[in-house]
Design a protein that fits this description.
Elements: H1 7-13, H2 15-27, H3 34-47, E1 52-56, H4 59-69, E2 77-81, H5 87-94, E3 98-102, H6 113-117, E4 124-130, H7 139-149, E5 152-156, E6 164-165, E7 168-169, E8 176-180, E9 194-198, H8 201-211, H9 232-242, H10 245-263, E10 278-279, E11 285-288, H11 292-301, H12 331-335, E12 339-342, H13 350-365
Helix pairs in contact: 2-9, 3-9, 4-5, 4-8, 10-13
Length: 366
């Protein structure tokens, strides 16, 4: 079996360090806050070239807290790509704002200046720039639009740990940025976890207060917040894994290069594009084909696991009928039935990838 993801294999490769990190947290009863969380926040802020990092309970919480910290007028419109996980949009609605879905670049699946300008109104207050599949958005034009129109830019880096835009790490470019540490992410915990990064002291303080019941000091509640904390064990695990993420990322890039070389002659497949400004970290390697479901079944019959991210674009979901913004002609609505994610990760050997390539070529040539 060629697995899509193999977290146990990853654990075994660093087992002693992980076990020691967990044991230290238990020995010191540092389950909530304390040294393990502070150590990770410090290390991750350096890794993302950010001035501030706030650990929270999960990536969705991170998005909601970031939006709330931005202190936008109630009922503001926030621009969100139409192809993403629902967390990118549900956080908007749960914070009392209105989702406006915008189209994406058909080659790297991210929003652009052009798609933003098509949907600006006098109610637009923020942009959520999702670095989907690990490919960064073209941030400079997005930030120029934001500055011109006084908009907040929130980077959704849930799939983009370590990705770079023109040599700068994602998470350091917008007003706020969020990360998810869901186990399957490039940097994943052994449970839920998330973080917010920012260069703004004011936003960092507000986000930390929101995540901790509206306070910094114990019992000194300045407003009603919420309870969203990165726990000590997850922070300790992430601190260990952070030492390996660059090595794992280079393996993902090498696998992606192997796929691109091995599949480039198949006319019925559209491969992902890596822009010259981007360090793409390939959280997912996503191809497009009109024969997606047939190919997926064929690969499964040959013991190759694949995934579909995401089979229904956000605007088509029942959850967003109220938005009334469904447009059949948008790229994300026309292509959601074509997307297929191939196995990728440091658990794969070159031979594993070669087998995937061989079977895909066999499928299209038979």
């Amino acid at each position: 079996m060629i697995k899509f993801l193999d977290l146990f294999s990853q654990y075994n490769s660093i087992k002693e360090e992980i076990d020691e990190a967990i044991s230290n947290v238990i020995a010191n009863s540092a389950f909530i806050g304390g040294a393990p969380v502070s150590a990770f926040e410090e290390k991750f802020k350096v890794y993302t070239d950010s001035k501030y990092c706030i650990g929270v309970g999960n990536g969705t919480d991170a998005l909601e807290i970031a939006i709330e910290a931005a202190n936008l007028p109630k009922g503001s419109e926030i621009l969100v790509p139409g192809n993403s996980f629902i967390a990118s949009s549900e956080a908007v609605t749960r914070c009392g704002h209105r989702v406006v879905f915008i189209d994406v670049d058909p080659e790297c699946y991210t929003i652009s200046k052009e798609t933003i300008l098509q949907h600006l109104t006098d109610k637009t207050a923020a942009i959520i720039a999702v670095h989907l599949y690990g490919h960064p958005c073209d941030m400079n034009p997005i930030l120029e639009v934001a500055e011109t129109h006084n908009l907040i830019v929130i980077e959704d880096c849930a799939q983009a740990h370590g990705a770079e835009y023109k040599g700068k790490r994602v998470g350091s470019l917008g007003h706020l940025a969020i990360f998810s540490f869901y186990p399957g992410k490039n940097l994943g915990a052994y449970g839920d976890g998330g973080a917010i990064t920012t260069q703004s002291e004011e936003l960092a303080i507000r986000a930390r207060k929101i995540a901790n019941h509206g306070r910094i000091a114990k019992y000194d509640h300045e407003f009603e917040g919420r309870n969203s904390r990165l726990d000590g064990i997850q922070a300790a695990i992430l601190t260990v894994k952070l030492n390996y993420i660059e090595e794992w990322t280079q393996k993902r890039i090498a696998i992606a290069d192997q796929y691109i070389e091995g599949l480039s002659d198949i006319s019925e497949i559209i491969l992902p594009v890596r822009r010259v400004f981007a360090k793409q970290v390939y959280h997912l390697f996503v191809i497009r084909t009109d024969r997606r479901d047939e190919l997926k079944s064929f690969l499964a019959e040959n013991n190759i696991q694949t995934g579909v991210h995401y089979p229904i674009s956000l605007a088509k979901l029942d959850a967003y009928k109220y938005v009334g913004q469904y447009d059949e002609d948008t790229f994300y609505n026309k292509t959601d039935s074509q997307l297929l994610s191939l196995p990728i990760g440091e658990h794969l050997t070159k031979n594993d990838v070669s087998q995937v390539i061989t079977f895909i070529n066999q499928f299209f040539n038979k």
